[in-house]
Fold these 2 entries.
Entry 1:
Amino acid sequence: MKDIILNALRALDIVNYQIEENETESAELFFIKKTLDMRRTKRTRGYAVTVYRDFEAEGTKFRGMSQAQIFESMTPAEVENSLRGAWFAAQFVKNPFFELYEGKEEAPVDMPSTLAERPLEQNALRMAEALFAADVEEDAFINSAEIFAVKSRKGILSSRGVDIAYTRYEVKGEFVTQCRAPQDVEQFFQFGYGDLNTAALTEKARQAIAAVRDRAAAQKSPQAGTYSVVLSGDQVATLMEYYQERSLAPFVYARYSDWTVGKPVQGEPVEGEKLNVTLLPIAPYSDEGIPMVTRPLIKDGELQLIHGNNRFCRYLGIEPTGYYERIGLDNGTQALEDLRKGCLCPVSFSDFQMDSFTGHFGGEIRLAYLYTEKGVEIVTGGSINGSLPEKQGKLLFSTERYDTLTYTGPFAVRIEGVEVAG
Amino acid sequence: MQVQRSAFLQAAKPLLQQLIAQLTEKYGYASVLAADTRSKGYRVGNTGVGVGEDDLFTCRGFVLKVFDGRSYGEYSFTHLDEKSIPAILAEVEGRLMPLTGLPAGLSVSEYGQIPDEPAVLLKSSEYEVHPDQMGDEAILAALTAIRNDAKGRDERVLDCTVRFEYQEIHKLFLSPHRDLEQNLLWSDGGFNVMCPKEDDIVSYYDSASALGGAEVLDIMKGKLDNAVKSALELIDSQPMVPGEYECVCTPAVTGMIVHEAFGHGVEMDMFVKDRALAKKCVGQYVASPLITMHDGAAVQRDTGSYFFDDEGVLAHDTVIIEKGILKRGISDAQSAMHLGTEPTGNGRRESFERKAYTRMTNTYFEPGTDTFEDMIASVKDGFLLDNPSSGMEDPKNWGIQCMVNVAREIKDGKLTGRIFSPIVLTGYVPDLLKSITMVSKDFDLEGGGMCGKGWKEWVKVSDGGPCIKARIRLG
């Protein structure tokens, strides 16, 4: 198919292009309690072709672009017709001219993973075994689960020399835990690993079952008021996305963000911990073939980098970095036990949200622990609503760590003065 | 005009029939869903102009479903020709269906065979203006005009991102006794008016959608005035003082409550998993007697409309709540088999690559008899809630988590002009629905967004209804 695409591009005199080939193979298991309700396998291949068209209008040079999706069942005539449509559309895309990313041919990369050692179906079954290994009590258990073992290969070929390919494996999924007494409740969890990390999944499921048991025992909502709040786990990762997104080149270019390198983006003065954030690659190359490397984003609360895809970085006159999907935080000075003293600690929300435009975060509390001098109270319900730009100067992080496919850093963060609706 | 048929699916049909025949020889039942969908999007904003086919909904491929006498398996693939048939059969027979290595303590579900009642259908939806016919240049010009109009109204408007998308969908469902083909055109567009507020940005989003074509661009234009005014008002918005208030909800907020707070709770695959409180409440009052709720791909003409679902079940109009009483849920075919109920045509996939789940289509409350003006006049101390921004389901506990962008203060029956944002709605769904005391004559559906199941499985839906007045906890 790649040759058919290249022939069509030549026939249409399209000289600037990028071809992205995506090949996916998966084995998927869907459980209801301990019963396999459905199994699925998948083998797909598709191509996304971006064409670039240069033109001038009123003395200004533009570089338009448009994307066509190409499928392996297409005939050569269909491929040419699809690319002709994209080429036609690109002439109306009046974007300022920018240089395309220049790359070179590189040897294909097989990202190291223990998942590569056995067939996908076996990986999925191993993870199922690990998940249900924690499901040993009758009062609290795994209600349902979905497990996906995926092998994906991405190849990128461009008119500017990029010719790269890499293969990666992952196991990911979700599960719901349930506890029927004293009240019937459930909680939702997601997981994702680049290796056959059965021990991590068993531990996550064990903690998830313990958490749902606590939630079943929670009787009342927290009283409305202003609290010191400790967020943990995935909520910390979501909160920190604010810094990754506000420093994106398209945000800055569009004036949605006024961040510049050297700006104290955490505000001044910082009475809590100064932020130290790093951008981390999850693949060897970006979707434009840019090599992805670890890059400092914020050092001691000061922005180090504007980052993003080729086009917007070129517009801003900075080095294209590619789009990062994982961040790391070097912070963490307080033991979790000390951090949560006197705090409301929500550990589960129905949907925790972070708005990168406004910096507002919030969500409805499914399970929280209120740590007071009298002890620990389990609460459920109510919601939190806060503004990170207003609160970011007094953040404190735990020494305990947390790792996911999109985040590595402190397990918990303490935020002062958060409004809680009971 | 009617949406044309897919030449690709016509050409693939004999091979697919051959596949089904061969699989049925070995297995009790086999079906295939073939999809050929083209989804194209247009966007203008401060980041520039974008045009292209998206990779979420643009697809061409197949999913086989096979029954081995007790359970079901599915194989999704993209490559099909004469030569590939043996490899497809080998995948199903050698990799998918044999279940080896299932860990101790885990078992396999036991299902009956899908009834597979005979049916033949060939239907296409209608449109006024096909986006391809309107053309890339004219569509971008229309979007640019909306953007320029918004930006030209007030220098405080930082940006107005405007988008338009359409999906031309062709699907073919084949089983031993069913031969169904549908051709649909869904279109939707929206804009987000953004204004700076100190170090932040406030915004107001609105959208329009249809089972149709580029005619939605005209509907979008009619909504711009309110969006710009509202975005500018948000600059002076204040944080909400948490509490329970009398609220009037616009049709868009009603739609979010219908969809997120209640609709997800009557998806019957959640009944199968014992994950929905609604299962225990069929036949009971769950809402005010003023409330009648529908879901159906066969009613309304919006982005949840189709003729048959992704499991080959014909589209329905399901009355879920009738005058406050929960009558039934909605379901996919496999959940219906599990529960011993009839499927309601709600088995939907994000694409041929994904599993089918019970999903909503067009979901709404029926209009009532009150006027919007009377509803505002009846509120002593409360808010007009407008512009939903997000929501999350909680079928198990019927907890509400919905966020709206705008709460307009009402004092002694009049809007004061004060505006609060952002707002989190919380509480217990039946409490909210039972507290509804007024329902307006207005009716509006919106299908500009997408619905997920949890945090994935995106499908287009529409939701809405009239204005409702209820007591709601705000934070």
Entry 2:
Amino acid sequence: MAVLRSTQEKLVILASAVRSFFDPMAGAEDTVKWFQHDSPRRGGGMTSTADRCPAGQPLRSPSHSHLEQRLFKKLDSVVMASATLGWSGAASDYFNGRAGLAGELAPRRRELLTRFSLRLGDSRLLRIPR
Amino acid sequence: MKRLHGSKSGGALGRIMQQVPSLKLPAREKRALPDYIEKQVIPEILELTFTIEDAFRNMSNAWYKLSQEGKVRALRLTSAVYRHEAFLGAETAGHHLATSMDLVGERLRGAITRLSAGTTLLSNATWRCCVQPKRN
């Protein structure tokens, strides 16, 4: 009975996920969807030809809390450096939010913005494919 | 799906069908329930197995065409991809897959409801046996 119940529940969830994946409007605002190449499972299996998997993930996914709880919270200190993130406050805020540094760990976070020594006008290269 | 209906052991449905005679069910239901599982549930599970294969084959073809012959590992679905001709086959297959999943889910729900009636009767009977007469 437990197998029947769990399978029935999984099928309902999966059917909904498949519909959302193929509906361009479903989650258009806050979800990114992609086809992912997945290695076939060892020993084949029922879906042995299914090595291209549909996938989707909310943009504001639990990944930031995952990083916060599983990675950063367990460490005493982490030094993260970037040549461009301090360029504007918005970029820094965005990064902190996505990396799980804007929530519980925000009081522990220290930011240091050094003088911008990179001469962007001389250093950047724009390449346009033909 | 294999856990549900394995080819060798019969899976969970096979075990349930073996146990139906020992359930506290009306005699008519004891005959009808295995018949329902055999004729309504199992064929749809087998059909779903083929549908899954077919849907993923279609998705694989679409991915291959859209990702420039497999050069890209993960292909993001943009509005252009949704409009692409190669994607339409995968989309149709996906809808068929979702419908098939819904159908199997519905059939399983029917089986669960009917089996639950049997287990409720069984548990009620057990409960009655356990009640001791009050001593004065």
